[in-house]
UniProtKB/TrEMBL annotation:
GO terms for biological process: cobalamin biosynthetic process; methylation; siroheme biosynthetic process. The lineage of its organism: Bacteria, Pseudomonadati, Pseudomonadota, Alphaproteobacteria, Hyphomonadales. It comes from Hyphomonas johnsonii MHS-2. This is Siroheme synthase. It catalyses: precorrin-2 + NAD(+) = sirohydrochlorin + NADH + 2 H(+). PANTHER family: SIROHEME SYNTHASE, SIROHEME SYNTHASE-RELATED. One of its GO terms (molecular function) is sirohydrochlorin ferrochelatase activity. Pathway: Porphyrin-containing compound metabolism; siroheme biosynthesis; sirohydrochlorin from precorrin-2: step 1/1; Cofactor biosynthesis; adenosylcobalamin biosynthesis; precorrin-2 from uroporphyrinogen III: step 1/1; Porphyrin-containing compound metabolism; siroheme biosynthesis; precorrin-2 from uroporphyrinogen III: step 1/1.
Length: 463
Protein backbone atom coordinates (compact mmCIF):
# COMPACT_ATOMS: atom_id res chain seq x y z
CA UNK A 1 0.00 0.00 0.00
CA UNK A 2 1.87 3.04 -1.22
CA UNK A 3 -0.84 5.39 -0.06
CA UNK A 4 -2.78 5.45 3.19
CA UNK A 5 -6.48 6.24 2.80
CA UNK A 6 -8.01 8.71 5.27
CA UNK A 7 -11.03 11.00 5.22
CA UNK A 8 -10.74 14.70 6.02
CA UNK A 9 -13.38 16.04 8.39
CA UNK A 10 -14.90 18.90 6.44
CA UNK A 11 -17.03 20.34 9.22
CA UNK A 12 -15.86 23.92 9.85
CA UNK A 13 -13.00 23.44 7.39
CA UNK A 14 -11.56 25.80 4.78
CA UNK A 15 -9.94 24.64 1.57
CA UNK A 16 -8.13 26.43 -1.23
CA UNK A 17 -8.31 25.65 -4.93
CA UNK A 18 -5.91 27.34 -7.33
CA UNK A 19 -7.29 27.74 -10.82
CA UNK A 20 -10.30 29.02 -12.71
CA UNK A 21 -10.49 26.50 -15.55
CA UNK A 22 -12.22 23.17 -16.15
CA UNK A 23 -9.97 21.12 -13.86
CA UNK A 24 -10.53 23.51 -10.97
CA UNK A 25 -14.24 23.43 -11.66
CA UNK A 26 -14.36 19.64 -11.38
CA UNK A 27 -12.58 19.72 -8.03
CA UNK A 28 -14.80 22.52 -6.73
CA UNK A 29 -17.86 20.46 -7.72
CA UNK A 30 -16.65 17.65 -5.45
CA UNK A 31 -15.77 20.02 -2.62
CA UNK A 32 -19.10 21.82 -2.89
CA UNK A 33 -20.83 18.59 -1.79
CA UNK A 34 -19.13 19.02 1.63
CA UNK A 35 -19.78 21.79 4.17
CA UNK A 36 -16.27 23.26 3.66
CA UNK A 37 -15.63 26.94 2.93
CA UNK A 38 -13.96 27.06 -0.46
CA UNK A 39 -11.61 29.79 -1.63
CA UNK A 40 -10.75 29.78 -5.32
CA UNK A 41 -7.53 31.62 -6.18
CA UNK A 42 -7.55 32.82 -9.76
CA UNK A 43 -5.89 35.26 -12.06
CA UNK A 44 -8.34 34.31 -14.82
CA UNK A 45 -11.67 32.53 -14.50
CA UNK A 46 -13.75 30.65 -17.10
CA UNK A 47 -17.15 32.10 -17.94
CA UNK A 48 -19.92 30.56 -15.85
CA UNK A 49 -17.55 29.28 -13.12
CA UNK A 50 -18.53 31.90 -10.54
CA UNK A 51 -22.23 31.55 -11.40
CA UNK A 52 -22.17 27.75 -11.05
CA UNK A 53 -20.95 28.01 -7.46
CA UNK A 54 -22.62 31.29 -6.50
CA UNK A 55 -22.84 31.54 -2.70
CA UNK A 56 -20.60 28.50 -2.25
CA UNK A 57 -17.15 29.87 -3.08
CA UNK A 58 -15.06 32.94 -2.40
CA UNK A 59 -12.99 34.10 -5.35
CA UNK A 60 -9.69 35.85 -4.62
CA UNK A 61 -6.68 37.02 -6.66
CA UNK A 62 -3.26 35.32 -6.23
CA UNK A 63 -1.92 38.01 -3.88
CA UNK A 64 -4.70 37.07 -1.40
CA UNK A 65 -3.68 33.38 -1.31
CA UNK A 66 -1.65 33.76 1.94
CA UNK A 67 -4.52 34.36 4.39
CA UNK A 68 -6.59 31.61 2.76
CA UNK A 69 -3.71 29.12 2.99
CA UNK A 70 -3.10 30.09 6.59
CA UNK A 71 -6.36 28.44 7.70
CA UNK A 72 -6.71 25.81 4.95
CA UNK A 73 -7.10 22.12 5.81
CA UNK A 74 -5.66 21.34 2.36
CA UNK A 75 -5.07 22.90 -1.03
CA UNK A 76 -5.53 21.76 -4.58
CA UNK A 77 -3.53 23.21 -7.46
CA UNK A 78 -5.66 22.77 -10.54
CA UNK A 79 -4.12 25.32 -12.85
CA UNK A 80 -1.62 22.91 -14.38
CA UNK A 81 -1.08 24.87 -17.57
CA UNK A 82 -1.06 28.20 -15.84
CA UNK A 83 2.31 29.90 -15.26
CA UNK A 84 1.18 30.53 -11.66
CA UNK A 85 1.13 26.81 -10.82
CA UNK A 86 4.72 26.76 -9.59
CA UNK A 87 4.11 29.80 -7.47
CA UNK A 88 0.97 28.23 -5.98
CA UNK A 89 2.85 25.04 -5.11
CA UNK A 90 5.69 26.97 -3.45
CA UNK A 91 3.25 29.03 -1.43
CA UNK A 92 1.22 26.06 -0.24
CA UNK A 93 4.44 24.37 0.86
CA UNK A 94 5.53 27.50 2.73
CA UNK A 95 2.27 27.40 4.68
CA UNK A 96 2.68 23.65 5.36
CA UNK A 97 -0.72 22.87 3.84
CA UNK A 98 -1.25 19.29 2.49
CA UNK A 99 -1.22 19.65 -1.26
CA UNK A 100 -2.73 17.97 -4.30
CA UNK A 101 -1.50 18.98 -7.75
CA UNK A 102 -3.84 17.77 -10.47
CA UNK A 103 -2.22 15.19 -12.77
CA UNK A 104 1.15 15.44 -10.98
CA UNK A 105 1.20 12.56 -8.46
CA UNK A 106 4.95 13.19 -7.96
CA UNK A 107 4.14 16.60 -6.44
CA UNK A 108 1.18 15.50 -4.31
CA UNK A 109 0.97 15.05 -0.53
CA UNK A 110 -2.37 13.36 -1.17
CA UNK A 111 -4.35 12.31 -4.23
CA UNK A 112 -8.10 12.69 -4.74
CA UNK A 113 -9.66 9.26 -5.19
CA UNK A 114 -12.54 8.24 -7.39
CA UNK A 115 -15.57 8.77 -5.17
CA UNK A 116 -19.01 7.25 -4.66
CA UNK A 117 -21.06 9.76 -2.72
CA UNK A 118 -24.09 8.42 -0.85
CA UNK A 119 -24.20 11.10 1.83
CA UNK A 120 -22.82 9.65 5.07
CA UNK A 121 -21.49 6.67 3.13
CA UNK A 122 -18.57 7.55 0.91
CA UNK A 123 -16.49 5.00 -0.96
CA UNK A 124 -13.13 6.11 -2.28
CA UNK A 125 -11.05 4.17 -4.79
CA UNK A 126 -7.44 5.06 -5.38
CA UNK A 127 -4.73 3.58 -7.58
CA UNK A 128 -1.83 5.49 -5.97
CA UNK A 129 -2.04 7.85 -8.91
CA UNK A 130 -0.99 5.14 -11.38
CA UNK A 131 -4.25 4.52 -13.27
CA UNK A 132 -7.14 6.90 -12.52
CA UNK A 133 -9.15 5.34 -15.38
CA UNK A 134 -9.00 1.99 -13.61
CA UNK A 135 -10.29 3.64 -10.43
CA UNK A 136 -13.19 5.03 -12.43
CA UNK A 137 -14.11 1.63 -13.84
CA UNK A 138 -13.96 0.06 -10.34
CA UNK A 139 -16.17 2.86 -9.10
CA UNK A 140 -18.77 2.11 -11.76
CA UNK A 141 -18.93 -1.52 -10.64
CA UNK A 142 -19.26 -0.54 -6.97
CA UNK A 143 -21.94 2.03 -7.81
CA UNK A 144 -24.14 -0.82 -8.95
CA UNK A 145 -23.69 -2.67 -5.67
CA UNK A 146 -24.38 0.15 -3.24
CA UNK A 147 -28.08 0.86 -2.63
CA UNK A 148 -28.93 4.46 -3.52
CA UNK A 149 -30.27 5.17 -0.03
CA UNK A 150 -27.45 3.57 1.94
CA UNK A 151 -26.38 7.07 3.05
CA UNK A 152 -29.83 7.66 4.57
CA UNK A 153 -29.48 4.41 6.49
CA UNK A 154 -26.07 5.47 7.79
CA UNK A 155 -27.43 8.89 8.80
CA UNK A 156 -30.26 7.17 10.69
CA UNK A 157 -27.75 4.94 12.47
CA UNK A 158 -25.74 8.05 13.44
CA UNK A 159 -28.86 9.61 14.99
CA UNK A 160 -29.74 6.46 16.93
CA UNK A 161 -26.21 5.71 18.15
CA UNK A 162 -26.57 7.48 21.56
CA UNK A 163 -29.92 5.76 22.24
CA UNK A 164 -28.45 2.39 21.28
CA UNK A 165 -25.55 2.94 23.67
CA UNK A 166 -27.98 3.63 26.52
CA UNK A 167 -30.43 0.84 25.68
CA UNK A 168 -27.77 -1.85 25.09
CA UNK A 169 -24.73 -1.13 27.27
CA UNK A 170 -23.03 -4.43 26.40
CA UNK A 171 -20.84 -3.75 23.36
CA UNK A 172 -21.14 -7.28 21.90
CA UNK A 173 -24.93 -7.25 22.17
CA UNK A 174 -24.91 -3.77 20.67
CA UNK A 175 -22.86 -4.96 17.71
CA UNK A 176 -25.41 -7.75 17.11
CA UNK A 177 -28.18 -5.16 17.22
CA UNK A 178 -26.40 -3.05 14.58
CA UNK A 179 -25.75 -6.07 12.37
CA UNK A 180 -29.46 -6.84 12.38
CA UNK A 181 -30.53 -3.21 12.05
CA UNK A 182 -28.25 -2.45 9.13
CA UNK A 183 -29.04 -5.57 7.10
CA UNK A 184 -32.55 -6.55 8.24
CA UNK A 185 -36.05 -5.17 7.83
CA UNK A 186 -35.08 -1.68 9.06
CA UNK A 187 -32.49 -1.46 6.29
CA UNK A 188 -35.02 -2.69 3.76
CA UNK A 189 -37.47 0.00 4.84
CA UNK A 190 -34.77 2.68 4.58
CA UNK A 191 -33.76 1.48 1.11
CA UNK A 192 -37.42 1.64 0.08
CA UNK A 193 -37.50 5.30 1.19
CA UNK A 194 -39.53 4.70 4.38
CA UNK A 195 -37.16 6.33 6.87
CA UNK A 196 -39.86 6.74 9.51
CA UNK A 197 -40.66 3.04 9.29
CA UNK A 198 -36.96 2.20 9.43
CA UNK A 199 -36.50 4.33 12.54
CA UNK A 200 -39.58 2.82 14.22
CA UNK A 201 -38.27 -0.66 13.43
CA UNK A 202 -34.82 0.11 14.85
CA UNK A 203 -36.31 1.63 18.00
CA UNK A 204 -38.58 -1.40 18.44
CA UNK A 205 -35.50 -3.63 18.21
CA UNK A 206 -33.84 -1.61 20.97
CA UNK A 207 -36.52 -2.68 23.47
CA UNK A 208 -35.48 -5.54 25.74
CA UNK A 209 -36.74 -8.91 24.49
CA UNK A 210 -37.94 -7.45 21.16
CA UNK A 211 -38.84 -10.25 18.72
CA UNK A 212 -36.65 -10.33 15.61
CA UNK A 213 -38.79 -9.33 12.62
CA UNK A 214 -38.43 -10.73 9.15
CA UNK A 215 -39.60 -9.40 5.81
CA UNK A 216 -40.88 -10.84 2.56
CA UNK A 217 -39.70 -9.49 -0.79
CA UNK A 218 -41.68 -10.49 -3.86
CA UNK A 219 -38.98 -10.27 -6.48
CA UNK A 220 -39.29 -10.42 -10.25
CA UNK A 221 -36.56 -12.61 -11.72
CA UNK A 222 -37.16 -11.59 -15.34
CA UNK A 223 -37.49 -14.05 -18.22
CA UNK A 224 -34.34 -16.08 -17.58
CA UNK A 225 -31.18 -14.23 -18.59
CA UNK A 226 -29.55 -13.29 -15.26
CA UNK A 227 -28.28 -10.04 -16.78
CA UNK A 228 -31.89 -8.91 -16.97
CA UNK A 229 -32.25 -8.92 -13.18
CA UNK A 230 -32.58 -5.50 -11.60
CA UNK A 231 -29.79 -4.38 -9.26
CA UNK A 232 -32.24 -4.53 -6.37
CA UNK A 233 -33.32 -8.07 -7.22
CA UNK A 234 -29.68 -9.19 -7.32
CA UNK A 235 -28.92 -7.59 -3.96
CA UNK A 236 -31.97 -9.12 -2.28
CA UNK A 237 -31.29 -12.57 -3.73
CA UNK A 238 -27.78 -12.41 -2.32
CA UNK A 239 -28.92 -11.18 1.10
CA UNK A 240 -31.88 -13.55 1.59
CA UNK A 241 -31.94 -16.21 4.32
CA UNK A 242 -34.49 -18.24 2.37
CA UNK A 243 -35.69 -18.13 -1.24
CA UNK A 244 -38.97 -19.64 -2.43
CA UNK A 245 -38.82 -19.86 -6.21
CA UNK A 246 -41.05 -20.81 -9.12
CA UNK A 247 -40.25 -23.33 -11.80
CA UNK A 248 -39.90 -20.49 -14.29
CA UNK A 249 -36.87 -19.00 -12.52
CA UNK A 250 -33.80 -20.01 -14.51
CA UNK A 251 -30.95 -22.11 -13.09
CA UNK A 252 -28.54 -19.28 -13.83
CA UNK A 253 -30.52 -17.07 -11.43
CA UNK A 254 -30.89 -19.78 -8.77
CA UNK A 255 -27.08 -20.02 -8.86
CA UNK A 256 -26.89 -16.42 -7.60
CA UNK A 257 -28.59 -17.27 -4.28
CA UNK A 258 -26.23 -17.13 -1.27
CA UNK A 259 -24.77 -20.58 -0.66
CA UNK A 260 -25.89 -20.86 2.94
CA UNK A 261 -29.44 -19.65 2.21
CA UNK A 262 -32.31 -22.16 2.06
CA UNK A 263 -33.75 -22.70 -1.43
CA UNK A 264 -37.30 -23.93 -1.66
CA UNK A 265 -38.81 -24.77 -5.08
CA UNK A 266 -42.55 -24.23 -5.03
CA UNK A 267 -43.26 -25.50 -8.54
CA UNK A 268 -46.10 -23.50 -10.01
CA UNK A 269 -46.07 -24.29 -13.66
CA UNK A 270 -49.31 -24.28 -15.62
CA UNK A 271 -51.60 -27.01 -14.32
CA UNK A 272 -48.90 -28.22 -11.92
CA UNK A 273 -49.26 -26.24 -8.74
CA UNK A 274 -46.94 -28.55 -6.83
CA UNK A 275 -47.35 -26.44 -3.69
CA UNK A 276 -50.86 -25.03 -3.21
CA UNK A 277 -51.02 -21.22 -3.19
CA UNK A 278 -52.31 -21.11 0.41
CA UNK A 279 -49.38 -23.22 1.56
CA UNK A 280 -46.95 -20.82 -0.15
CA UNK A 281 -48.59 -17.97 1.78
CA UNK A 282 -48.23 -19.88 5.05
CA UNK A 283 -44.56 -20.68 4.40
CA UNK A 284 -43.72 -17.07 3.50
CA UNK A 285 -45.42 -15.79 6.67
CA UNK A 286 -43.88 -18.46 8.92
CA UNK A 287 -40.35 -17.78 7.62
CA UNK A 288 -40.70 -14.03 8.10
CA UNK A 289 -42.03 -14.60 11.62
CA UNK A 290 -38.85 -16.55 12.38
CA UNK A 291 -37.05 -13.28 11.64
CA UNK A 292 -35.80 -14.35 8.22
CA UNK A 293 -35.25 -12.22 5.15
CA UNK A 294 -37.50 -14.02 2.74
CA UNK A 295 -37.35 -13.70 -1.03
CA UNK A 296 -40.23 -14.99 -3.10
CA UNK A 297 -38.66 -15.21 -6.53
CA UNK A 298 -41.00 -15.22 -9.49
CA UNK A 299 -40.47 -15.46 -13.25
CA UNK A 300 -40.83 -12.19 -15.15
CA UNK A 301 -42.67 -9.55 -13.14
CA UNK A 302 -44.51 -10.60 -9.95
CA UNK A 303 -47.57 -8.52 -10.82
CA UNK A 304 -48.07 -9.81 -14.37
CA UNK A 305 -49.86 -13.16 -14.32
CA UNK A 306 -47.70 -14.03 -11.34
CA UNK A 307 -50.18 -14.13 -8.44
CA UNK A 308 -47.98 -11.53 -6.77
CA UNK A 309 -51.09 -9.59 -5.77
CA UNK A 310 -52.51 -12.54 -3.83
CA UNK A 311 -49.22 -13.18 -2.06
CA UNK A 312 -48.74 -9.53 -1.13
CA UNK A 313 -52.25 -9.37 0.27
CA UNK A 314 -51.87 -12.57 2.31
CA UNK A 315 -48.49 -11.61 3.76
CA UNK A 316 -49.54 -8.08 4.68
CA UNK A 317 -52.83 -9.32 6.14
CA UNK A 318 -50.75 -11.45 8.51
CA UNK A 319 -49.01 -8.29 9.71
CA UNK A 320 -45.71 -9.18 8.02
CA UNK A 321 -43.74 -6.52 6.10
CA UNK A 322 -43.70 -7.17 2.39
CA UNK A 323 -42.22 -5.32 -0.56
CA UNK A 324 -42.34 -5.85 -4.29
CA UNK A 325 -39.43 -5.59 -6.70
CA UNK A 326 -40.52 -5.46 -10.33
CA UNK A 327 -38.94 -7.70 -12.91
CA UNK A 328 -38.70 -7.59 -16.67
CA UNK A 329 -41.79 -9.39 -17.82
CA UNK A 330 -41.21 -12.22 -20.30
CA UNK A 331 -43.28 -10.21 -22.81
CA UNK A 332 -40.72 -7.41 -22.75
CA UNK A 333 -37.65 -9.65 -22.51
CA UNK A 334 -38.75 -11.97 -25.33
CA UNK A 335 -39.74 -9.09 -27.59
CA UNK A 336 -36.41 -7.36 -27.05
CA UNK A 337 -34.43 -10.55 -27.68
CA UNK A 338 -36.34 -11.10 -30.93
CA UNK A 339 -36.04 -7.47 -32.08
CA UNK A 340 -39.83 -7.35 -32.14
CA UNK A 341 -41.24 -3.94 -31.16
CA UNK A 342 -44.50 -4.52 -29.26
CA UNK A 343 -45.86 -1.15 -30.34
CA UNK A 344 -45.02 0.68 -33.56
CA UNK A 345 -46.40 3.94 -34.88
CA UNK A 346 -47.27 2.34 -38.22
CA UNK A 347 -48.59 -1.00 -36.98
CA UNK A 348 -49.74 -1.14 -33.38
CA UNK A 349 -51.10 1.68 -31.28
CA UNK A 350 -52.04 -0.51 -28.35
CA UNK A 351 -50.76 -3.56 -26.57
CA UNK A 352 -52.79 -6.13 -24.65
CA UNK A 353 -51.54 -8.89 -22.36
CA UNK A 354 -53.93 -11.80 -21.90
CA UNK A 355 -53.76 -15.21 -20.32
CA UNK A 356 -54.47 -18.19 -22.52
CA UNK A 357 -55.30 -20.35 -19.54
CA UNK A 358 -58.52 -20.16 -17.53
CA UNK A 359 -58.39 -20.49 -13.72
CA UNK A 360 -60.16 -23.84 -13.85
CA UNK A 361 -58.22 -24.92 -16.97
CA UNK A 362 -59.05 -24.70 -20.69
CA UNK A 363 -59.72 -21.61 -22.79
CA UNK A 364 -60.46 -18.44 -20.83
CA UNK A 365 -63.52 -16.33 -21.48
CA UNK A 366 -61.84 -13.39 -23.24
CA UNK A 367 -63.29 -10.43 -25.09
CA UNK A 368 -62.50 -11.82 -28.54
CA UNK A 369 -64.03 -8.82 -30.35
CA UNK A 370 -61.65 -6.49 -28.53
CA UNK A 371 -58.71 -8.80 -29.25
CA UNK A 372 -59.61 -8.89 -32.95
CA UNK A 373 -59.39 -5.10 -33.40
CA UNK A 374 -56.76 -3.99 -35.91
CA UNK A 375 -53.62 -1.95 -35.17
CA UNK A 376 -52.91 -3.66 -31.86
CA UNK A 377 -50.56 -6.30 -30.51
CA UNK A 378 -51.89 -9.12 -28.36
CA UNK A 379 -49.44 -11.07 -26.21
CA UNK A 380 -50.81 -14.33 -24.89
CA UNK A 381 -49.22 -15.84 -21.78
CA UNK A 382 -49.70 -19.56 -21.02
CA UNK A 383 -51.41 -20.00 -24.39
CA UNK A 384 -49.52 -22.96 -25.91
CA UNK A 385 -52.14 -25.58 -24.98
CA UNK A 386 -55.07 -23.43 -26.07
CA UNK A 387 -53.49 -21.84 -29.16
CA UNK A 388 -55.92 -23.47 -31.63
CA UNK A 389 -58.98 -22.11 -29.80
CA UNK A 390 -57.35 -18.70 -29.35
CA UNK A 391 -56.54 -18.35 -33.06
CA UNK A 392 -59.99 -19.58 -34.05
CA UNK A 393 -61.82 -17.18 -31.70
CA UNK A 394 -59.81 -14.15 -32.77
CA UNK A 395 -60.26 -14.94 -36.48
CA UNK A 396 -63.98 -15.55 -35.98
CA UNK A 397 -64.22 -12.16 -34.26
CA UNK A 398 -62.77 -10.48 -37.36
CA UNK A 399 -58.98 -10.41 -37.30
CA UNK A 400 -57.43 -11.45 -40.63
CA UNK A 401 -56.18 -15.08 -40.76
CA UNK A 402 -53.03 -13.69 -42.41
CA UNK A 403 -52.16 -11.57 -39.32
CA UNK A 404 -48.51 -12.25 -38.43
CA UNK A 405 -47.75 -14.21 -35.25
CA UNK A 406 -44.59 -15.12 -33.39
CA UNK A 407 -44.19 -17.86 -30.82
CA UNK A 408 -41.25 -17.48 -28.46
CA UNK A 409 -40.31 -20.33 -26.15
CA UNK A 410 -37.74 -19.96 -23.37
CA UNK A 411 -37.08 -16.39 -24.42
CA UNK A 412 -33.69 -14.88 -23.41
CA UNK A 413 -32.35 -18.32 -22.43
CA UNK A 414 -29.79 -20.50 -24.18
CA UNK A 415 -32.55 -22.86 -25.40
CA UNK A 416 -34.77 -20.12 -26.83
CA UNK A 417 -36.89 -21.04 -29.85
CA UNK A 418 -38.70 -18.51 -32.06
CA UNK A 419 -41.09 -19.36 -34.85
CA UNK A 420 -43.05 -17.07 -37.13
CA UNK A 421 -46.13 -17.45 -39.32
CA UNK A 422 -49.74 -16.35 -39.54
CA UNK A 423 -52.66 -16.47 -37.14
CA UNK A 424 -54.39 -19.25 -39.10
CA UNK A 425 -51.31 -21.48 -38.83
CA UNK A 426 -50.62 -20.78 -35.13
CA UNK A 427 -51.34 -24.27 -33.70
CA UNK A 428 -49.38 -25.94 -36.53
CA UNK A 429 -46.37 -23.69 -35.95
CA UNK A 430 -46.36 -24.73 -32.31
CA UNK A 431 -46.78 -28.39 -33.09
CA UNK A 432 -44.15 -28.42 -35.86
CA UNK A 433 -41.53 -26.77 -33.61
CA UNK A 434 -42.40 -29.10 -30.69
CA UNK A 435 -43.04 -26.10 -28.43
CA UNK A 436 -44.28 -27.05 -24.99
CA UNK A 437 -43.62 -23.77 -23.12
CA UNK A 438 -42.95 -21.60 -21.33
CA UNK A 439 -43.84 -19.67 -24.45
CA UNK A 440 -45.56 -16.47 -25.51
CA UNK A 441 -47.80 -15.95 -28.51
CA UNK A 442 -47.41 -12.52 -30.09
CA UNK A 443 -50.25 -11.66 -32.44
CA UNK A 444 -50.22 -8.57 -34.67
CA UNK A 445 -48.42 -6.86 -37.54
CA UNK A 446 -45.35 -6.23 -35.36
CA UNK A 447 -44.72 -10.00 -35.31
CA UNK A 448 -43.91 -9.71 -39.01
CA UNK A 449 -41.20 -7.08 -38.52
CA UNK A 450 -38.14 -8.99 -37.23
CA UNK A 451 -35.69 -10.05 -39.98
CA UNK A 452 -36.28 -13.71 -39.08
CA UNK A 453 -40.01 -13.24 -39.67
CA UNK A 454 -39.41 -11.62 -43.06
CA UNK A 455 -37.04 -14.44 -44.05
CA UNK A 456 -39.63 -17.00 -42.95
CA UNK A 457 -42.42 -15.34 -44.97
CA UNK A 458 -40.14 -15.20 -48.04
CA UNK A 459 -39.29 -18.92 -47.73
CA UNK A 460 -42.99 -19.80 -47.48
CA UNK A 461 -43.74 -17.75 -50.62
CA UNK A 462 -40.99 -19.48 -52.61
CA UNK A 463 -42.04 -22.98 -51.42
C1 LIG B 1 -47.45 -17.70 -14.74
S1 LIG B 1 -46.98 -16.75 -16.14
C2 LIG B 1 -45.82 -15.71 -15.44
C3 LIG B 1 -45.52 -14.50 -16.24
C4 LIG B 1 -44.45 -13.67 -15.63
N1 LIG B 1 -44.87 -13.10 -14.38
C5 LIG B 1 -43.96 -12.54 -16.55
O1 LIG B 1 -44.12 -11.36 -16.23
O2 LIG B 1 -43.38 -12.89 -17.58
C6 LIG B 1 -46.04 -17.92 -17.03
C7 LIG B 1 -46.02 -17.66 -18.51
O3 LIG B 1 -45.13 -16.60 -18.80
C8 LIG B 1 -44.55 -16.81 -20.07
N2 LIG B 1 -43.10 -16.90 -19.92
C9 LIG B 1 -42.41 -16.77 -18.79
N3 LIG B 1 -41.09 -16.84 -19.04
C10 LIG B 1 -40.95 -17.00 -20.36
C11 LIG B 1 -39.84 -17.12 -21.24
N4 LIG B 1 -38.59 -17.07 -20.79
N5 LIG B 1 -40.08 -17.28 -22.56
C12 LIG B 1 -41.34 -17.30 -23.02
N6 LIG B 1 -42.41 -17.18 -22.24
C13 LIG B 1 -42.24 -17.04 -20.93
C14 LIG B 1 -45.14 -18.10 -20.60
O4 LIG B 1 -46.30 -17.79 -21.33
C15 LIG B 1 -45.49 -18.80 -19.33
O5 LIG B 1 -46.45 -19.79 -19.55
Amino acid sequence: MRQFPAFFNMHDASVVVFGGGEEARRKVRLLAATPARITVIVSQIDPGFAEEFAGRITIAPPDHAGPALDIARFAIVANRLDVNADKAITMARQYGVPLNVVDRPDLCDFTVPSIIDRGDVVAAIGTSGSAPVLAKSIREKLEALLPQRIGDLAALARRLRPDARTAIPDSKARRRFWERALTGPAADLAYAGDLEGAEAEMRAQLRPGAPVRGIVHLVGAGPGDPELLTLKALRLIQEADIVYYDRLVSDAIIALIRRDADRVPVGKSKGDHSVPQETIHEWLIASAREGKRVVRLKGGDPFIFGRGGEELEAVRAAGVDAQVVPGISSALGCAAAAGLPLTHRDHAQSLTFVTGHAKEGGVPDLDWTALARPAQTVVVFMGVGTSAAIAENIIRAGRAPSTPVAVIENGTRANEIRVYGTLSELPHLIQRAGIKGPALLVIGEVAGLPEEAIAHAFKEQVA
